[in-house]
Amino acid sequence: MSDMEDRIAAYLAHRMPDARGIAVDDLSRIAGGSSQETFRFRAVWDEGDGPAERRLILRRAPPAGLVVAERDVEFSVYRALADSGVPVPRVYFMEMDDAWLERPFFIMAMAPGKPGHFWTSTDPFEGQAHEVGQRFWRHLGTLAAQDHAALGLTDLRNGTLGDGFWSAELRHWEALLDEHEAMTEPAVRGAIRWLRANPPSSPARPAIVHGDYRVGNFLFTPDGAISAVLDWEMCHVGDPLEDVAWAIDPMWTIESQFPLEDGLAAWETESGIAVDRVALDWWRLFACVKACAIWTTAAASFAAGRSRDMALAMTGVRGQSFHRTHLLALMADKGAMG
Amino acid sequence: MTLAIETAVRGVAEVLRDRVAPTLDDGYAIEAVRLSAMMLTMMANAADDAVVLRVAENGQLRALFGEAAGIVDDATLSARLEEAARSSDPGLRISELDRETDRLRRLLVALQIQLEAQADEQATILGQRIWRMLRDIEASRAPRR
């Protein structure tokens, strides 16, 4: 890692001309975050009034990842939401020039806390499930209450659309399936036809949609606070129920730690939007299609040798099967199987 | 005793999980090795019946197409279904079987679209049967840990 530490130090020196003697150490890659490479490190330097030290995070675009995302989306969203009430890390530098670290990257503060060990523990929030659950839903409601245009986020996908979010998003994920699907999946294609034939009502208002709001993508602290909501690279503008449906997908729902109805009530209070249960049902099936598309791109990246991230290989196999099975159960509920 | 593919692969997974992972101290490497071991276990569990599952699915699809050919209103599609019903697997390599499964599944999607458009009683019943068949195929192909 020492070469990379040196290169990061050189970059910081370039961006911080008033800092002297910048050094970077303790660099390590963090597992997870398969759509970006994530590193933590420590930076120390001298300022006019004495020494300074920061623990920082560097997020670098991978050679290939889960989805094709606009590289500066996450940085732009972090910056726009800094004072919104949604906890996000402070961001410092965005760099698109490949000369520094081969690929674009950005640097942000390392937030305190940790993600819940959701798949390996029955108590992923270490006795703070109620507090974490409340905040999980409140923060999502706060996000839904934001005016993306006022925050300068009209460049996000669908940022200038007034309506038709369900159709735009369905087309987006269907196109990724068309491009990357190695084996035709009639169940997923059938669900897409059902979704298109049974559109949901329009949202009360357009909202900033995180795109991957779930356990694992936020950090919590010992007092049960959520210190940061992370992984915004799939952020776009759309129907806020898309995030609600994604959050309660059975692969990562926190319903066993915090009752769903309490969560939806907290979301309604913060967002000022009543949950349309019929529309939410539509978005739950949509979430399955979206998940299958994401896992398909993961499998394609690994199969083509563009990535050797084992998380991509695993989700490419297990994730697809899980979500097709769930999709088939939802279609059975809709009477597709008689 | 023959060292079967699945036995060898499962053994490699166990070595990675039980002997290699505990010696590492880099968090990213530990996770990569753990996931690699899980992946190898799934592959080992899928090796023995990989051909059987694919041959069975292709056979189910061809039998279905034979029935559907007499139900669909579209003559061109009906002819394609009859042709597919008479076809056979080009070989027993997994890659060959997968290509054939994809060809048959594409035709299945076309059939489903036609049945949804027809919407008469026979079409509806066949459409529901296809969904149940897809559920059963998914269950049979699910990765085993």
The total count of helices of chain A amounts to 10
Computed Rg of chain A: 21 Å
Mean pLDDT over the residues of chain A: 93
- In CATH, the topology of the largest domain in chain A is named Aminoglycoside 3'-phosphotransferase, Chain: A, domain 2
Question: How many discrete domains of chain A?
Answer: 2
Low-confidence sequence ranges of chain B: none
By oligomeric state, this entry counts as heterodimer
| Low-confidence parts of chain A | none
- The mean pLDDT of chain B is 95
CATH architecture call of the largest domain in chain A = Alpha-Beta Complex
Question: Could you state the CATH homologous superfamily of the largest domain in chain A?
Answer: Aminoglycoside phosphotransferase (APH), C-terminal lobe
Q: Estimate the strand proportion of chain B.
A: under 5%
Q: CATH class of the largest domain in chain A, anyone?
A: Alpha Beta
Shape, principal axes of CA atoms of chain A: globular
Query: How many whole angstroms does the radius of gyration of chain B measure?
Result: 21 Å
